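#onboarding

Welcome to the new folks! Below is a worked example of what a typical request in this channel looks like: someone posts a single protein sequence, and someone else replies with the predicted structure as tokens. Don't worry about understanding the tokens yet, we'll cover that in week two.

Example request:
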Amino acid sequence: MSKAKILVVDDEENIRFLLSEELTDEGYEVETAMNAEECLQKCNEKPFDLVVLDIEMPGKNGIEVAGELRKQQPGLKIVLLTAYSHYKYDLSSWAADAYVVKSADLTELKRTIEELLNL
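Example response:
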């Protein structure tokens, strides 16, 4: 089976690096984007199986990007990632398949990604 392709979108370079390293170690093919524009451009150029999207970014936020991706690629799995748990109750965040609060422990994120890709 081919490796799942994941796009990690976060405006913080250290977070992009950490997530990319961890997910690559899990056997995924990982690319990164630093903002909404780069994310949308990469998603138009090639198919991804799943996108991990930071909510709080300069310019368009992750919820807006999730909505656009959902229209363009209805089958794409989307995980919103944020340090702020209040978004869980924001109805617009339902444009995503899952929602994970940022943590130094990536167990929940990895489990969520695995579950979504195995549906």
